[in-house]
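Discussion board: Methods & Data

I've been asked by a reviewer to show the raw model output for two of the constructs in my manuscript, not just the figures. I'm not sure how much to include, so I'm pasting the format here to get opinions. Each protein appears as its amino acid sequence followed by a line of discrete structure tokens. Is this the kind of thing reviewers expect to see in a supplement, or should I convert it first? Here is construct A:
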Amino acid sequence: MSIPAVSSSAGAASSSKPNVSGQISQLQGQLKDLTQKLKATSDSDMEAQAKTQMLQMLQAQIAAIQSQIQALQQQQNQQQIQSKDGAQNKAVQANEETTAARRSTLSTLGSQVDTYA
């Protein structure tokens, strides 16, 4: 008895400009399909050795997709952290520019010293 081929999803996480949420969603769909195939295979009445090989192959593919999803989620979290850091850096830079502008208006000695008669 031959084992039917199951499509691989190794290239699903590679893209020049990744749409991480879309990739995660696509991988979750593949994960759902593989899980259903795993259940159907475990419930089938195929030859024991072929069934075992098929189950191992499906479990390996499920593990690979779960790893890809985890990597993409980490990438997404890193991008969110970087975008927050970028916004904070812009705010700090604007604050520093405002402070520098105030200092330049107060640069003359007469404006810094109070005189009493």
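Construct B, same format:
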Amino acid sequence: MSFLDFMSIVKHYRKAISLILVVFLLVGVVCVLPVKPSYKAAATVSACDPSGVVSANTLISMIVPISNEVIDDYSDDIKVQIAAPSPSTAPCVFTITAEGEEGGECVIVANEVARGIADKAAELFADLNTLYRDESKEKAKALLEIFETQDVALGDALSILSDNYSYCNFIIDEASEPAPTGTRPLHVILVFLLAGILVAGASIACVMAVRDPIRSIKQVESAFDIRVLADSASSGFAERLWVNVELLSGEKPSVLAVLPLTGNSDDLQLVSDLRCIAEEKAGAQVLACQPLNESVDSVRIANRANATIIYAEAWCDSMPVLGATLKELRLANAKVAGVAFARGN
């Protein structure tokens, strides 16, 4: 199938295609109307001890309860979650996500939670460090008693002991912009539009496969060994037919048969016009036949006529019917002059 054939199919079925696309678009819009927008903002808190004294397990086990405590202070309108790191990673990065219908509020909540966790963790470790210093002083005094004969000052004794929590720090990476999450209305509508295109294409493909309608003059002439005598799109449709029949037969036919593939030939304007022309120019007779699937007499009429014209209407008649009609007329030794090609609506 050429591009021109494809475009002619789209043009002919444009109303059906448009209807299918509109229906699918409306369904898509109806589906997304109840869907509320959703946004997510993420902030992180990195906890580490550069001295390497405090392990990752210790940091995680002490910060996780603090995180849960901070989250409990926020309402259910914003869903806040904490993702704890693996003990094997360094530094320990805690990811705070806030999800809700308002993107700006999600950013604010994520950052507030991150700052709350960092502040409480720093306060906790500062308290622990103070307690450890107090214990160290007592230990230092014990060392002085042991080394009372030596000139060891209290500060030197304290330096012997590790200051476990003084190097722990907490770095905040705040959220800046929210990211849309969940179902996006535009994406849903585009999916339904694509589905509509696929359904329209599949429907037309089925129609074309089942009916195989006549689409163009080129299609008829390339599929069958027959000539198209005239096209209804041109002016003087009946006049052209008569002239071409005369030229092909080499004489003015006295009896001309018009055989439509479908419908009632008595209702064709072409038959009336041909009768007027034939009577005026040759005193000839034009016989209107009924489709072969409706009347067997049409074969007898075509056999007695000097020339037979097959009337084919684009998009209404089908290629298989045209092929079967030609085969039956040729078996009956009818003189088939050619096809009168009528443009369908």
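Answer (T.O., handling editor elsewhere):
This is acceptable in a supplement if you add a one-line summary per construct. For B, something like: DSSP finds eleven helices and ten strands in the chain.
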